[in-house]
Amino acid sequence: MANPSVSKRQLGRALMSLREAAGKTREQVSAVIECSESKIGRIERGHVGVRAAELRDFLTLYGVADDQRRELEALARETRKRRPRTTFGKAIPEWFRRYVDLEETAAEIRTYDGELVTGLLQTEDYARAITEASPLHIPTEIGRIVQARAARQDRLTDDDAPRVWAIMSEGVLRLQVGGRDTMRQQLKHILDLAALPNLTVQVTPFSSGAHAATGFGFTLLRFADDVGIDIVYLEDLTSASYLDNPDDQQRQHYALVWQQLTAGALPPAESLRLVDTVRREL
Length: 282
Known about the structure:
- Helix content is 49%, strand content 12%.
- By secondary structure, it is α/β, with parallel strands linked by helices.
- It folds into two domains: 4-79, 434 Repressor (Amino-terminal Domain) (Orthogonal Bundle); 89-281, Endonuclease, Chain A, CATH 3.30.870.
């Protein structure tokens, strides 16, 4: 079954295009539809779905012809379908589920981590060690949390696998999460994954000193229907935030920092040699 998040994004973009073609602002539309301007923004960005009655009002206001109306109504029905349940669904906190949906449909994932291996590249033992280290996780849920992380990695080898570009600090390689054996296995896993044609790994060495992302990590998600537009994902201990408003200039700050990171990190071949060197030292 298709991810409803994809349909929400497609419907939202279509409604935004129709609004702009009709020469109307969100403020003008909100006055007619009788909902808040912020809600229209959330609909257009694919955060929320649209009720059937609301959609009829939008399409009437934008003067949409019958054929296109039927297509959009069918797309809206897709957004209201529920995804199949998984055995680990409740193990993923609510604030993280939106990210999992976005990650599952992204065409490109670029991520910088300064302390831990990014989730998509973690082995199960490494993920388990991180999960067990937190007092916020219920012991009986740890197995399902690890299972959920492993399931996310399956897409790396799918036919429609995303382009993944992971930059990490040298400290990530040297922090012994789970002990020497776990780290040796984890570093070997990074080397194996880096052989995939859709995956690039770079390392910022200690010798490079400070850089613009020192002290924090972030992820840039790009989608096939949003050429040149990134969603910035920022995570803290118990919540996350998303910079996805096209008018939000902060998104450009992260794109600029990413450019600096790629230029300052070791080239991919040298990065992998460093990963292997650290692995052999363990």
